């Protein structure tokens, strides 16, 4: 199965539960970021950085966060930190495994960000992301491409 067709439970920007496929966003650029765990210090900081840069980033792409947390944990995380982007629950690591082919390293996807273009093609990958300055790197990428 192609990664665009993998269906996952998620919550939208308003905390409403839905099922999503990345193909639902064809025609839009996507910033798809994988993170280890809801509500841990670094993951929270990363989500907050995306939230703070949301107005700038949404001019270029939709932000979607992915972890193996369940929907209830995502809902709590989103509410607690007032996150305004989609969070997907990849409990079985289906999406994570599908994106392994786009990585340079053999290791598991840890904190990794993918840019997916309007046609569903991965155009940029950041592995082992340092959350400080990462949203600036993404903005710079879009401004130069």
CATH-scheme architecture: 3-Layer(aba) Sandwich
Q: What is the average of the pLDDT values?
A: 91
- SSE succession: EEEHHEHEHEEH
**Uncertain residue segments:** none
Total number of helical segments? 5
The helix/strand class is alpha/beta
Number of domains: 1
Q: What's the multimeric state? A: single chain
| Alpha-carbon distance between the two ends | 29 Å
- Tell me about the largest β-sheet: 7 strands, mixed
Q: What is the CATH superfamily label? A: Glutaredoxin
Instruction: Compute the CA-based radius of gyration.
Output: 14 Å
CATH topology assignment: Glutaredoxin
Q: What share of the residues lie within helices? A: 25-40%
Instruction: For the largest sheet, list the strands in their spatial order.
Output: 2-1-5-4-3-6-7
Q: Total number of β-strand segments?
A: 7
Name of the top-level CATH class: Alpha Beta
Spatial shape: globular
Bin the strand percentage: 15-25%
What does this structure look like?
The N and C termini lie far apart (29 Å). The longest helix is centred in the N-terminal third of the chain and has 12 residues. The chain contains 5 helices and 7 strands. Strand 4, helix 3 and strand 5 form a beta-alpha-beta unit. The chain has 145 residues and is α/β, with parallel strands linked by helices. The protein has one domain: Glutaredoxin, CATH 3.40.30. A 7-stranded mixed sheet has the order 2-1-5-4-3-6-7. The mean pLDDT is 91. It is globular and about 35 Å long.
């Amino acid at each position: 199965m192609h990664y665009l067709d993998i269906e996952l439970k998620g919550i939208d920007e308003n905390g409403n539960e839905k099922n999503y496929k990345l193909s639902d966003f064809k025609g839009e650029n996507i910033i798809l970021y994988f993170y280890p765990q809801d509500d841990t210090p670094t993951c929270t900081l990363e989500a907050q950085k995306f939230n703070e840069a949301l107005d700038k980033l949404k001019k270029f792409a939709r932000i979607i966060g992915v972890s193996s947390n369940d929907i209830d944990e995502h809902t709590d995380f989103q509410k607690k930190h007032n996150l305004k982007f989609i969070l997907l629950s990849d409990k079985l690591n289906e999406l994570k495994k599908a994106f392994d082919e786009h990585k340079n390293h053999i290791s598991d996807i840890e904190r990794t960000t993918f840019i997916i273009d309007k046609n569903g093609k991965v155009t940029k990958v950041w592995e082992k992301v340092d959350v400080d300055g990462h949203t600036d790197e993404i903005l710079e990428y879009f401004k130069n491409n």
